[in-house]
Amino acid sequence: MTSPTTYRFSFGPWNISEGNDPFGPEIRAAFPHEKKLALFRTLGFEGVQFHDDDVVPGLDECTPGQMLRRAAEVKTALDDEGLIPEFVAPRLWFAAQTVDGAYTANSAADRAYARDRTRKCIDIARALDCKAVVLWFSREGTYIREAKDPKLAYVRLLESINAMLDYDPEIEIWIEPKPNEPTDQAYVPTVGHAVALSYASKAPHRVKGLIESAHALLAGLDPSDEMAFALAHDKLGSVHLNDQNGLKYDQDKNFGGANLRVAFNQVRVLEENGYGRRGEFVGLDIKAMRTQRGSPVTEHLKASRELFLLLVEKVRTLDRALVEQFRDARDYEALELYVLRHLMGTKP
Ligand code: 3MF
Ligand code: MG
Fold first, then answer.
1. Is the distance from CB of 171 to CB of 205 less than 8 angstroms?
2. Which residues sit with their C-beta closer than 6 Å to ligand 1?
3. Backbone angles phi, psi at 138, to 5 degrees
4. Which ligand is nearest to the Cα of residue 180, counting in written order?
């Protein structure tokens, strides 16, 4: 018998926010970025997800020396708090040069900016002793189909990935698919696209996926099946657990907050496939409700972590023999009732 997985959790500093949305500004007092690291352990988290400019603010204006000095300070702060940097992601959607995308922008100068910024992101990751870079292809897509040559766009994405693999011989690239928002149609909308890019790349074992529950739901897919697909290819770098109520704006709701059964199945697929046993983090990407008072807001992170652990118990106490029996008998009606009763804690 192997011992049960002890899960490690992570989130990014942007998950502690001031509540601004597209219709209104901040409504909570700002909580200083530097102080956020001190919260992780007390909340039960030991992994930190970073954007490159979370580590080095004003990155585009920094000299290489300034950049590395600042990264070294953050590394010391992480060590002091006993925290592990899970990944660093290049923020390729803020700058004027990324208005039309980054690696797929129509302007050669803008594509060069994106490549340069990505190299800086990798340098920062290495300075933190962090083994992965996450690519969320935020603006790699179009608002109207005629705006870009989509085949060329995929070629450019692959070339950019290969350039990253060349630039650093060890770094892993985890692609975080999302089908839309902020673009109308994004390139690499599903993990299948990400895995195809991985196999086409020059180092497939270093290119993986990061599945965000809400992103899969926005693509009309079940997040647990997206995770299973990546796991079947040994390419699940990490997850961004959260929830999403239908095809709306990207909601980043509390894990399990919209659909407990969908959350249960994500936990089931992760647990049944030994996710976490090689140090993978259970990552969250969750927005606090705008209505929440106080600063800093952390209830949403605590609640989602707790919900994950409660669902782990539900997975571990699932009667596997009974599940097999129902599968053998092809009695999925009975299986469904059993699963729902189990989730509700109702005795048969
Ligand atoms: C957007 C996202 C992003 C990514 C993050 C890491 C701001 O929907 O999910 O969060 O997770 O940028 O790459
Ligand atoms: Mg995310």
1. no
2. 14, 89, 134, 136, 176, 178, 212, 240, 250, 285
3. -35, -65
4. 1
| Protein residue closest via CA to atom 10 of ligand 1 | 285
Cis peptide before 13 (omega within 30 of 0): no
Domain 9-300 has CATH 3.20.20.150: yes
User: What is the domain partition of the chain in residue ranges?
Assistant: 9-300
Closest-CA residue, ligand 1 atom 4, reads 136
Residue 79: how many other CB atoms lie within 10 Å: 12
pTM (global) more than 0.85? yes
What's the gap in Å between 250 CA and the centre of ligand 2?
10
pLDDT digits (tens, 9 = 90+) for 186-208: 999 999 999 999 999 999 999 99
Query: From the alpha carbon of 136, which atom of ligand 1 is closest?
Result: 13
Pairing, β 207-212 against β 236-240: parallel
Q: Are 301 and 45 in contact (CB under 8 A)?
A: yes
